[in-house]
Amino acid sequence: MKNVTDSCLSWGYWPSAGSFGFNTDILSTNLINLSVVLGVLIFFGKGVCASCSLSDLLDNRKQRILNTIRNSEELRGGAIEQLEKVRARLRKVQTEADRFLANGYSEIEKEKLNLINSSYKTLEQLENYKNETIQFEQQRVINQVRQRVFQQALRVALGTLNSCLNGELHLRTISANINMLGSIKEIGN
Length: 189
Description:
Number of helices: 4
Number of strands: 0
Order of helices and strands: HHHH
Transmembrane segments: 31-54
Family: Belongs to the ATPase B chain family.
Largest sheet: none
Protein name: ATP synthase subunit b, chloroplastic
Structural class: mainly alpha
GO molecular function, one term: proton-transporting ATP synthase activity, rotational mechanism
Shape: rod-shaped
Subcellular location: Membrane; Plastid, Chloroplast thylakoid membrane
Helix content: over 70%
Strand content: under 5%
């Protein structure tokens, strides 16, 4: 044993391995890697399940895959049903939206016509008010002109009477007018 230990410890005993490099021969390296992997699988695969064989494992895997596919198909079918329900609801909502839109437009048109009619009525009332105001102003101006004409005529008549009447004629005219006013006052009572 001493010889083995000495030989392991002695670096001079081990021959030089040469240089480090890559093996570029693909076939030989792949065969070596494949044989190592298969050996490891066989060696460790025996101890995993004594009653399980490779075909049982493959059958189990196949069943899980088929179950997953079956579940996926069921989920797909459910999703398609839900999609059809959602599409039907969307069509219903679009129909209602179109109906509301059409009703909205008709309501807008009604409101527009009502607003136009109301505006015409308001304009007509304003036109009538304007015409009444013009007539009132015309009547007021006519009355003012009449008063001024009457006042002017009265001044001219008084001027003419004053120049034509003497004192005695003037007193008789005033007395006659006072008597006339007194008789009008008695008739009013």
